[in-house]
Amino acid sequence: MGAAAPTRFEAACGPLRALAGSLGFPGDETAAMVACLRVLAASWADAPLADPPPWSGLGADASGCDLSLVLGGEQREIRVTVEAQGDPPSPRSYLAAALALSDTLEARYGADLSRLRAVLPVLADLDPEAAGVLWHGAVFRGGQAPWFKVYLHLMAAGRRQARATARAALDRLGLGATWEGIAARLGPDDDLLFLGFDLLPGDAARVKLYLRHAETDAARLAEAADPDSRDSVRAFVESLAGPGRIVRRGALSALHLRPDAPEPARVTTHLRLFPHCGASDAMLRDRLCAALHRLGLPSAPYEAAFRALGGEESGDGEGLHGWASLQGAGGRPAVTVYLSPRLYLARFGPVALAPERMWPSPVLGRLACASA
Q: Would the pTM count as exceeding 0.85?
């Protein structure tokens, strides 16, 4: 008998093991990460990798998950983000799968769902063509139990409704007083993309609103950042995108909201790396290393992760790098690099970047044409 066909989970946990190994996590902690990923990915874990991907905007190739590492933080840290998926694929079935996963995280890990339950009414009317509804993230730090967060897609009820959806969700979280400051930051063509919050109780939970800029450059992203981080943001963006480069719909400002003040506590700057800042893995590696050096951060952990995840030294590979973000806290920068497991890239390319269709799969139309 031949070997069993690999599953999506088996393909996804290989890069997680490689990343953990490259950062020096011991075997028992790596095994715990893999077990947690199995819980997060339960809705699609056993699907054959050979099947075409269902729609997902998480990953350029619709992988439905990604990995990230934090450089310059106080502790060694790996994160995973996963989209729970329903069958047949639709925004409504994905939401049902995400809520079932949330209940599992509450029962198994003690995740606090109070904020999620408070905002659920804003998802009552889903757009049947919504790009996504609710993603889950897990944070792994050495010697600690994982903790979790969610990302609510603010366009889930329709792109035109995103600002109203955001405002209603903030009201339900006791953050309505922040809206005036948020609205002042929005350009006419900017989008409110995600509302993210930790599944932690009380003041331990952070709430972040992700604003996608229609177009921007290093100077404007620096102006949108915290006053004490503007030089770092400018250096970060110039290193990755190039001086004077206009970035169109590939840059986010994440506003860390607080109930006691109209202005955010801080702002994190995010840049989409592939393909906005370069196509090849090798080019993006070089640009990331340059950005880290300009910020005074070590590049060795990132370079070890790059090699462990199969980064192409020849310059031919692409699609490993999703995003990079810069957060400054008290003048101490930290960079997070988001990496893709590339479950489907080799076969289907970056189908989620400009999909001809979304539901139920971004590639089914292409496959039907190829077999005709």
A: yes
Neighbours of 275 (CB within 10 A): 16
CB atoms within 10 A of CB 372: 5
Hey, CA dihedral for 244, 248, 254, 255, is it positive or negative? positive
CA neighbor of 77 nearest in space, from 370, 338, 351: 338
pLDDT tens digits for range 142-161: 999 999 999 999 999 999 99
* Tokens, residue 42: 């339960």
pLDDT above 90: residue 23: yes
Residue pair 182/267 in contact by the 8 Å Cβ criterion:
no
Predicted local confidence at residue 149, as pLDDT:
98
Where residue 319 falls (left for φ over 0; alpha for ψ -120 to 50; beta otherwise) is: left
Closest by CA to 159, choosing from 61, 267, 263, 249, is: 249
**Mean pLDDT, residues 7-24:** 97
Q: Which residues pair with 336 in a beta bridge?
A: 70, 325
Q: According to the model, what pLDDT value does residue 372 have? A: 44
Is residue 273 a contact partner of residue 323, using CB atoms and an 8 Å limit? yes
Using the CB atoms, write b or e for 75-107: b if 16+ within 10 Å: ebbbbbbbbbbbeebbbebbbebbbebbeebee
Render pLDDT for 325-367 as a digit per residue (tens, 0 to 9): 999 855 689 999 999 999 999 999 999 999 989 999 999 866 5
Q: Which range among 125-134, 136-145, 305-314 shows the weakest confidence by mean pLDDT?
A: 305-314
User: From residue 48, how far is each of 44, 52, 157 by CA, in Å?
Assistant: 9, 9, 31
The total of other beta-carbon atoms located within 10 Å of residue 247's CB is 22
